[in-house]
Design a protein that fits this description.
Two copies of one chain form a homodimer.
Chain A (H helix, E strand, L loop, with lengths): L7 H19 L7 H12 L5 H8 L3 H13 L3 E6 L2 E9 L3 H20 L4 H19 L2
Antiparallel strand pairs in A: 1-2
Chain A binds a DNA duplex through α1, α2, α4 and β2.
Chain lengths: 142, 142
DNA sequence: TGCATATAATAAGCAGAGCTTACAATATAG
DNA sequence: CTATATTGTAAGCTCTGCTTATTATATGCA
């Protein structure tokens, strides 16, 4: 069992799966997935930007972002507005309906953080996050 | 961009995606996925156990494990042998062909570890892993 | 012994997250 | 004005994992 723990990749993959499960269980009221939540979260922080820019920020392909936005549009949490300066592009905005969902996401995030980090000191947590970011950066320059 | 870093869940999901990409790129010679590698890795450590036990060890559903073993059987890296004590069950064994693949997995793991952790001290790494395991445990008791 | 219940594996089918390739419409540089 | 680049999308694939039956076998119990 704890043999796995030699292997960082497996451990992260595993944790990721548990996070997704956790997230989906708590959020069954609002039918949003982790990836959608992440996209929505970014939209709320960069409202009005183009899809390409969003995709870039999330480091996913434009097509993947287009699909996520399709879903968020279907749920009427997000609007595509023609960019007045570029008729190819859309600007992405939140709808009023998005607010409670964002709050819900925040709530579940906090819950999860609580459940994961409750036994850790805040110093430990921030050190952990910093290390994780460095790992991630190491993988990015591929 | 760095706004995401407030959110541990998103950060881990993201890192996971990068790990999977890394893994698949380096391993294109042998057509094995991360999940298959993980299963194979476990089989090598618990050779002869039943599928249910493997599923349990990896904390995935028996059906998910059955599929993974189907794939590994197709690749002839693993064999299902009738359990002499229980005619419902199979015991899982490596084939001789598995060895080089396991070595390859080891190689790529080491490569990834190197690339992710090169800038970190070993003390930092083990502290990181310990914290990660605690997070994961926190999520497990759901 | 015989039956009810539990367990091992699997069939079938779905969902989530992401990718690639190809293409239309529009911008922009030369 | 033409060539090139960019925005968004259609179509379809992969990978990882799940749920809900079903079949075959074990096993506890009466």
């Amino acid at each position: 069992m704890s043999d796995e723990h030699d292997n960082l990749a497996f451990l992260i993959a595993d944790t990721n799966r548990l996070i997704r499960q956790f997230f989906q269980q708590r959020l069954r009221c609002s039918p949003i997935t982790l990836a959608q939540a992440r996209a929505l979260f970014y939209v709320s922080r960069f409202e009005g930007v183009k899809q390409v820019e969003l995709a870039d920020a999330l480091e996913i392909q434009p097509m993947t972002m287009a699909r996520l936005l399709d879903q968020l549009c279907d749920l009427q949490l997000v609007e595509r507005v023609q960019d007045p300066n570029d008729r190819r592009a859309y600007q992405i905005f939140l709808t009023p309906a998005a607010k409670p969902h964002l709050a819900e996401i925040e709530r579940v995030s906090a819950l999860m953080r609580e459940q994961m980090l409750s036994t850790l000191g805040s110093e430990q947590v921030s050190s952990f996050m910093r290390t994780l970011i460095r790992l991630r950066t190491g993988l990015l320059n591929d």
